[in-house]
Amino acid sequence: ALDQRDDLDPVGATERGDLWRVTSDIGARPSAASPAGGIALEILQIAVIVIALLLAAPTGRSRARARQHPRIVGLTAAERAADAGKARRLEDGAQEAQALPSEPTGEEAT
To answer: pTM of the predicted model, to two decimals?
Structure first.
């Protein structure tokens, strides 16, 4: 790893690991000034954010469409009433079936 680099020489060991010295010339750091396309990039980023915000805002058409198709989780009141009516009819039918005398099977009780 580091010992294979020609521009680093080992200095010694410390509690936290080996210490290395740079033997080659160290180049100047690049300036912190914005690059030539920096302003154009910032304008592009702002434009993307503005477009995303405009697309996220509801329009009259999207609000009208949302009102036509409400997002209801579960059954509506009408569906609950219809299901309750079906359940009552099934219960009534089951009670009527229990009240009817059973048909003889041909076997006699002993």
So the answer is: 0.34
